[in-house]
Amino acid sequence: MKDFVFHNPTKIIFGKGRISELGSEVRRTSRKVLLVYGRGSIKKNGVYDQVVDSLRTAGIEFVELPGVKPNPVLSKVHEGVELAKKEKVDGIVAVGGGSTIDTSKTIAAGFYYDGDIWDAFVGRYEVKRSLPIYVVLTLSATGSEMNMGAVITNEETKQKYAFVAPTSYPRVSIIDPSVQFSLPRIQTANGAADAISHVMELYFDGTPDVWIEDEISEGIIRAIIRSTDILMNKPDDYDARANLAWSATLALNGVTRTGRSGGDWSCHAIEHSISALYDIAHGSGLAIVTPAWMKYVYKEDIGKFARFAEKVFGVEESDEERAALEGIERLKNWFKSVGLPTSLEDVGISSTEIDKIVDNAAMRTPFGSLKRLEKEDVREILKLCV
Amino acid sequence: MKDFVFHNPTKIIFGKGRISELGSEVRRTSRKVLLVYGRGSIKKNGVYDQVVDSLRTAGIEFVELPGVKPNPVLSKVHEGVELAKKEKVDGIVAVGGGSTIDTSKTIAAGFYYDGDIWDAFVGRYEVKRSLPIYVVLTLSATGSEMNMGAVITNEETKQKYAFVAPTSYPRVSIIDPSVQFSLPRIQTANGAADAISHVMELYFDGTPDVWIEDEISEGIIRAIIRSTDILMNKPDDYDARANLAWSATLALNGVTRTGRSGGDWSCHAIEHSISALYDIAHGSGLAIVTPAWMKYVYKEDIGKFARFAEKVFGVEESDEERAALEGIERLKNWFKSVGLPTSLEDVGISSTEIDKIVDNAAMRTPFGSLKRLEKEDVREILKLCV
């Protein structure tokens, strides 16, 4: 097990009806907030009203930044930073999923930076200060509600990059699983695929002797699969929503990272190149890329891939290679079973586009820790995605 | 799954040689600390020197409170509170295991209270303020390094009670697994039994549909058993020490409590009555009481006990009752295999003492959530411990 520092200060308030506690939490630090959200679903499902009621009751002023879209973009961040500065807010409330939270984290950092906050994504600026961030989660997927990372697409350069900073941890995140009852099935599945991928990126980074982290990682994946299977037929099953939601948060709150080398993150890197160019859902992209990456690299740590097959899918096969391959197939079939795409063709991306994706990924190669991937490795993996 | 709030602000610094970081961490809040420790083992294994070096390098003054003993007592707390007030310290550094940390947490609270801090243990005072607490862990067992609880024995009244307060979370806990290489085998086993019991107290509290928490709980127990088995033969196996240490911390840092009713805690309550009277190691007491409690209550949630048998010990048995009983037997046998006592006789307590233990426990009955235990239930469980 490797050395680590674990320090996650986010307070999680979890349960039905807990959004009403937002205002009193925000009041600990803020009196006027930027209220960031997406494209209106929260006005249909009642979440917007609950948020506004709670803020008003606590005497919190707010200015609104609606319109954050999936695969959130830098131009929206710029708009938010400008608005936050002009309105002199002293906090941010993010109501939504990962896109809204990540946009909010970036605005919160940009508020205290005179240059273009994109600098934080390309290593030209180290974020040391952010506005306090409060979250009301409406889609369990990215884990951003309890971590310090944010992913944003620069539309001009077609770069979908991340930054991390300890000041980006939300102060408080409210997770009411029941607000996710009304999600379209595919969004639930996308969220599940994203959360599973977070666990896998860490699990398969090649660090040996992390028994407790491996146990927790496998347990999280099993719980996600169990919950998602139920939700495909019964989207308003509270316990399934709650187990999926908390599992997705734990998938990337740092616990599964302890003792490891920091994760492989190749699947995320390749997927980011796809969704930077084609605006497909991140979870769908991961469902396409992950099995292909596994097929390409499993020989680097064949015992671990065999273990994954056994622990996650109950594969009983004494030959390690056959077990590993069977596990990859089972994962792919599970993605299919919950309606996720598993090939580029499934999302309407022709194989003639591979060059473009490879070129985008090549802005950052080499990446990956289990197997260090060069540009040509990425091409081979994408060919397995056809 | 039940509603919950999760908020654990403790920073964990984990790894070999990390004690040198203590001083710079302490300096964030404090200039003169009370240095609390036990009965001298840290002077033999080099930990004391590392701590003192780090504090001196950072320019932190310290006054010493040595002599905390296992099953820590209120009189030592009083001594510490008096010394801390007299010396006007502004922080506490606890170097040791649960006894030292819990003594420190209680002193930290007592520093800001004019009455007897025992009031916090019996519900007469709610702790709202504590001195900042820093921990260097030397024995993985209680999880106190990353939670807000403390257990102290009042020698006069023979009450071994707990208090919890959010201000009791250590600011920073440094866990260097290699300092535990020199522990006597029985102390390692006692720590493992305590950590397993923490998971079980929560796991068996009767809350249904906590799939993710159950997965994590079972994974922690498996990792503890795996690590402990190795350490019995190879006490200086770093990875086994590291996995055991981090598992024991996670066992009671709040994650396994999320979504549940708060735990059953009957085994702890009964054990506290034993170790309040006979000064046996807490972990040993739990190894005696836990299988007996399980036998007495398993019919309340037979499916869960069968699941425990399967998931923790790989019991393959379709009849739930037989599986449940087999799991209890396997746990008891595992305790024996690592040298733990499993009967009162094993620790030299005669069955004629049961009345005394029952009377002590009766100061707090009824307790327990899976099965509410009255005084006579405690007697029946103790009879199963003979």
Give me a quick take on this structure.
Two copies of one chain form a homodimer. Chain A has 14 helices and nine strands.
Can you walk through the features of this model?
2 copies of one chain form a homodimer. The first copy, chain A, contains 14 helices and 9 strands. Chain A is an alpha/beta fold. Chain A folds into 2 domains: 11-179, 3-Layer(aba) Sandwich (Rossmann fold); 185-383, Dehydroquinate synthase-like - alpha domain (Dehydroquinate synthase-like, alpha domain, Up-down Bundle). The first copy, chain A, has a 6-stranded parallel beta sheet, sandwiched between helices. In chain A, 59% of the residues are buried. At the A-B interface, strand 1, strand 2, helix 7 and helix 8 of A face strand 1, strand 2, helix 7 and helix 8 of B. Strand 1 of chain A pairs antiparallel with strand 2 (11-14) of chain B, so a sheet runs across the interface.
